[in-house]
């Protein structure tokens, strides 16, 4: 009795756990459609996050270069302390004297002889009538807590176009970052489309394999019943058993593939890999209206625009290189207060205003500037050639993608027709087999052809959806 109660308790616990697991499973199931898949992929993509950060960075770089157009104000300060004072002596001696002249100018006070001529000493130098005596002067200079405080205002007047070129390059960098964002957006959408339609493909393929398995199981049941009454051979029963085993293996492979495709789709849209998904869309066999109306063009592709921006960037680099060898003029204004420099133990602070203009004119640099400019022009020409080659390759890619859409649409049409024929053939074969006018092998072959035609039709529809995504991406409309 005790054992029975324990068994009942264990059964209750197991049922409760199973209920919890089922509840968790239902809660984790996410219904997702084509548009929602794209939106979730864009929100969770690390590529988009990096591209957005690059746009933000480029915007800050542009603002930083724009600041070079305006004056820059800086505060400056200096402090100095020297332990020992510096002492030196100015030698004194006799100093010549001067007297006022008739026109108010000072004339040397030379000693004149009786004839009014200047007396010359033994050393050949004129002799002065009077001398002033200056004693030796001892000086002591010290830096006892000397300091300077002030402000500095700097303004570039003409830098050879360097500031303007650098700012324009930063602006181009911002535009290229935006184009790169569009490029990554198309990449993420293409990856999301591929993951979504692959999951839908396997979801529908699972249904087709399940239907095929049910048909083979029905045949197996009929033969088993017929075998019991002696109307079917063991050989026929074994043949159907082999087909049933193949159907079960195919179903398992399809289910495993669907699970992997679901995990990959969860990865793309930013969900937990074990999240149960339910695709709300199904595969359509019709080409999306308007997708093939416009001609094949690649000018809307972000890669094409990026190549244009690279050429423009090289042009600005040429101007930037040229600016290094043009005159450069700048002005600066400063005002400061200095104190702490002592002479013979005495110091007095001083406030001063300083204006400074700086002009640099390159004269001769052994053709350095000319060669650098020519090198940058060569890089610009290389970029133009690369753009021409890449444009042709992109046009070929877009044309191939358009043909891919047309081929995929034709394949859908043909596989749909083949599926209809296979369905009719299966019905006819079943009727003939049931009245004994067709062999079991032919009937099973008709079943296999029907399943293969259904599978081909599903693959063709999935291929059509992916080919449309590829064409939109190749023409810059994704």
Tell me the major beta sheet: 6 strands, antiparallel
Task: Identify low-pLDDT runs.
Answer: 13-27
Shape: rod-shaped
Q: What string, H for helix and E for strand, traces the elements in order?
A: HEHHEEEEEEEHHEHEEEHH
N/C terminus separation: 71 Å
Helicity level: 55-70%
Strand content: 15-25%
- The Rg value, from CA coordinates, equals 47 Å
Number of helices: 8
- Decide which structural class fits the backbone: alpha+beta
Average pLDDT reading: 89
Q: What is the number of beta strands? A: 12
Explained architecture:
The protein is of the alpha+beta class and 478 residues long. The chain has helices at 2-28, 34-44, 46-66, 162-228, 234-269, 302-323, 368-434, 440-474; strands at 30-32, 72-80, 86-90, 93-96, 98-100, 106-108, 131-134, 137-158, 277-279, 328-343, 346-347, 350-360. The strands form 4 sheets. Strands 2, 3, 8, 10, 11 and 12 form a 6-stranded antiparallel sheet that branches. The protein has a two-stranded parallel sheet with strand order 1-9. Helix 4 runs antiparallel to helix 8 (440-474). The model is unreliable at 13-27 (pLDDT under 50).
């Amino acid at each position: 009795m005790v054992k029975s109660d324990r068994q009942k308790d264990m059964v209750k616990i197991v049922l409760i756990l199973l209920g919890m697991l089922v509840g968790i499973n239902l809660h984790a199931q996410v219904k997702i459609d084509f548009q929602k898949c794209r939106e979730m992929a864009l929100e969770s993509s690390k590529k988009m996050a990096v591209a957005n950060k690059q746009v933000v960075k480029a915007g800050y770089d542009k603002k930083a270069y724009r600041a070079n157009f305006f004056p820059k104000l800086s505060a400056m300060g200096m402090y100095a302390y020297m332990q020992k004072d510096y002492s030196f002596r100015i030698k004194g001696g006799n100093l010549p004297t001067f007297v006022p002249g008739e026109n108010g100018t000072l004339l040397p006070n030379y000693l004149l002889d009786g004839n009014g001529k200047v007396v010359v000493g033994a050393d050949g130098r004129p002799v002065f009538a009077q001398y002033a005596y200056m004693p030796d002067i001892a000086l002591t200079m010290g830096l006892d807590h000397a300091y300077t405080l002030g402000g500095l205002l700097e303004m570039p007047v003409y830098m050879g176009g360097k500031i303007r070129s650098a700012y324009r390059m930063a602006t181009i960098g911002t535009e290229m970052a935006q184009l790169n964002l569009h490029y990554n957006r198309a990449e993420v959408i293409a990856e999301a489309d591929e993951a979504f339609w692959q999951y839908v493909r396997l979801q529908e393929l699972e249904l087709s394999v399940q239907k095929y398995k049910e048909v083979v199981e029905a045949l197996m049941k009929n033969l088993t019943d017929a075998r019991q009454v002696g109307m079917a051979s063991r050989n026929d029963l074994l043949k159907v058993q082999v087909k049933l085993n193949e159907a079960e293996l195919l179903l398992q492979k399809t289910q495993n593939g669907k699970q992997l495709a679901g995990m990959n789709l969860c990865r793309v849209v930013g969900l937990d890999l074990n999240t149960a998904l339910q695709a709300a869309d199904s595969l359509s066999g019709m080409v999306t209206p308007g997708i093939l109306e416009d001609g094949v063009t690649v000018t809307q592709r972000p890669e094409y625009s990026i190549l244009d921006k690279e050429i423009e960037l090289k042009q600005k680099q040429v101007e930037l290189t040229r600016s290094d060898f043009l005159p450069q003029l700048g002005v600066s204004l400063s005002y400061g207060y200095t104190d702490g420099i002592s002479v013979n133990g005495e110091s007095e602070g001083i406030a001063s205003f300083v204006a400074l203009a700086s002009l640099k004119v390159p004269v001769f640099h052994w053709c350095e500037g000319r060669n650098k400019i020519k090198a940058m022009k060569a890089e610009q020409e290389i970029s133009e050639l690369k753009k021409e080659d890449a444009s042709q390759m992109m046009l070929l890619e877009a044309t191939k993608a358009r043909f891919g859409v047309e081929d995929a649409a034709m394949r859908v049409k043909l596989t749909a027709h083949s599926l209809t024929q296979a369905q009719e053939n299966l019905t006819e074969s079943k009727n003939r087999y049931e009245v004994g006018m067709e062999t079991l092998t032919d009937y099973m072959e008709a079943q296999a052809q029907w399943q293969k035609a259904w599978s081909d039709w599903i693959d063709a529809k999935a291929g059509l959806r992916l080919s449309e995504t590829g064409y939109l991406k190749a023409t810059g409309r994704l």
